[in-house]
Amino acid sequence: MRRDRFRGQGQLGRLPRRVACALTVGALLAACSATPRPPIPADTRSATSVSASPVGSSAPATSGAPAAVPTPSAPAIASSAPSGLPSGRATPRYPTAPARPPTPLAAFGYSVAPVTSAQLGASWHPGCPVGPAQLRQIRLVYWGFDNQPHTGTLVVHASVVAATVQVFATLYRARFPIRSIRPASDFGGDDDASMAADNTSGFNCRYVSGPGPRRWSVHAYGQAIDVNPVENPYLDGVSVRPAAGAAYLDRSRYRPGMALRGGVLVAAFAAVGWAWGGNWSPPDYQHFSATGG
Ligand SMILES: [Zn+2]
Hints:
Elements (H helix, E strand, L loop, with lengths): L1 H5 L10 H16 L77 E5 L2 H4 L14 E9 L5 E9 L3 H13 L17 H6 L27 E3 L7 E2 L4 E2 L22 H7 L4 E2 L10 E3 L4
Antiparallel strand pairs: 1-2, 2-3, 4-8, 5-6, 7-8
Bound molecules: zinc ion.
């Protein structure tokens, strides 16, 4: 009869009141003194999406919203519960603070303008396969290695302006770092000087470098762009160009600014149908072209 009075009141109900109180206080103290769990790093979000955006769009990146903080299904219970009581479940690991929101990214911007022979300087001369009227200069925003936005100028063929803008908008929103974007005319049309400066450039009326018969490079048509030449050197079978690119011959060790299969840079160009010289043998990691050449 007496036991019936305690039916349904749990294990504590069957213990003398003084013992039950002592065990309850002990469990609470153990819960309060449990060793705190290290916080989970806030920046565990996946890489920024690089999906192609409409050309000319100035919408800021939308990825990277703070992840929802999971709600624990049960309160944390110390695992050192006194014997005789149900042992506590393992303390769930959940962030102690919301994920850090990303720094707002200034809008991507660009402008397109005609280019004159005077502006092309030594990068063009009569006899080149395309003339100034077929070329455009694009001023665009890019993300620098200093994690700041910068403005550069690319000269390309008029037919690839839209694709070029889309690629560089994608790279900017992905915060893919670029060292410098200046026209080849700033280097007197000297491709070696441009590469040594780790400069990203498009049009340059020059022949294909390396062995073989002399023929125009796709750059002479304004339909190829070299990106971060130091991080993405050109191997002509004999030497590494630029020389500083020798530090980047190990393509399995990723460092910022590199072109990698499946990476942001290669994917951005592939999205507009451009080919990557990194697939060639010997490879030209910096080279992307609309024609595949
Ligand atoms: Zn190239």
